[in-house]
Amino acid sequence: MKVIVSFLFVVLAPIFLFGQNEVSQKLVFSSYVDMYYSYDFSNPSNHDKADFIYNFKRHNEFNANLLLVKAGYDDKKVRGNLGLMLGNYAQYNLNTEPPWAQFVYEANLGVKLSAEHNLWLDAGIFPSHIGFESAISADCWTLTRSLVAESSPYYETGLKLSYTNQKEKLSFALLVLNGWQKIRKPDYIQKPSCGIQVSFKPIERLLLNYSNFLGTDQADSLKAFRSFHNLYLQYNATQKIAFIWGFDIGSDKYQPKNYGIWYSPVLIARYAFNDKIKIAFRTEHYNDKHQIIIPTNTTNGFQVTGLSANLDYNITPKAQVRLEGKRYKSKDGIFNHHSKENYSLTTNLSLKI
Length: 353
Fold this sequence. Notes:
9% of the residues lie in helices and 52% in strands.
């Protein structure tokens, strides 16, 4: 909390001191609060849900998933973002990072490289270029994150060269990164990692996206190479009905001389009764039998199918309450008490300002 308070003081003080000057008029402040209660019917005694879950992590207690404050600056030639956070997401998903970095949601600066074209070079810590979900639940169609999101990067650090065409139908980004969801580059890894993202919107109702990661998450001495590909499409069939289909596939070493793959399809359907009430259904499967991403120490590795349904109610355009029921079914007994099934209920109240 001291970090959050210090950040607010440093950013806000110049505005109060100097008034609505040119700089302050280009600063945009935002915040996000996500409070929740979740019940896991396997009743984990330590209140922690399964190891592969990083959001809405705590069982049978009221908690904060994400508390975020953010400042953004853009003068059409230079831009920057600084976001600091607290909550379960930061606590569990960034616990391998240095202490100072565990509060950082994003911190980046960018410069426009062309006066005529929307071409930017940015450097710093960014939300991931992979996938259709983020740590901000209110921006996602379902209350909890999908298996593909929980098992691929939420954030990344490096350089990003990006371009968006004049009609904003096509965008492209090339990234050089510190690694697979890393702020601090790990010891014993000197090789760079990279990625690309291509988004195409041929019509207003359809978005196609391809992202990848090429690099390593293991020490250079192991000579491993990770290749990961993410594809999704979002289609708004009508004003009320919309779909997201996603598919991830990756390859990496799981033994000194052997490579294996993991993959995960996901489908989400959403129906809007009106501006205030929506429902969404998700079906997904994650197959990591070689335990490259998710270790289980079981015969068949991580092979899990998930089903979920959620109800959303917008109290105001900025405040939302949600309820979600979810079921996981595994090939092996990887859940509490060696169960092959897991059931949970989660509800939250979020405010986005």
